[in-house]
Design brief:
Elements lengths: L12 H23 L1 E10 L7 E7 L6 E5 L4 E3 L4 E10 L3 E8 L4 E9 L2 E7 L3 H11 L5 H9 L5
Length: 158
Amino acid sequence: MNIKNIKLEELSTEELEALKTEIERLLKERANANKNAYEIEVSITADPRKWKPYIAKLVIDSNTAKLVREFYELPRTYGKHSITIFGKIQAKDGDVIEIREGGSWQNEYRYAYIVKGGKLVKICDHRDSKCYSNIVKYLLGELEENNLIKKTSEIPLE
């Protein structure tokens, strides 16, 4: 919406009041949405010859209902055999974050975390398809956070 296309002078007082009320409501909603956001400090170092590290928020694509990664753009530093990503990410309680911490020639070290009280709580390893299906159910609203953590805590992590 382009505010310049609206001719405010031509609106009636009632229409201006309704517009003002709607704007105030939207601003309050946006302020509340960011109210519970945390800045979480992260730093991950890995060998880029194996798997490059990343941090991404897991979300559901509204068109396909599939799990999608929204990658955080963080600074990177490069060494001879290492890459480090570091910085602060914005996340709210209940957000699911995936972190690839590197790997070896045959393994990838990728884990899912949930944000609780501004901390990252590990829920599972990427190799556990049942856990990732529970994450999809949680993000779709079919599974509560407590049940997600309870179900995944029953699965032993290495």
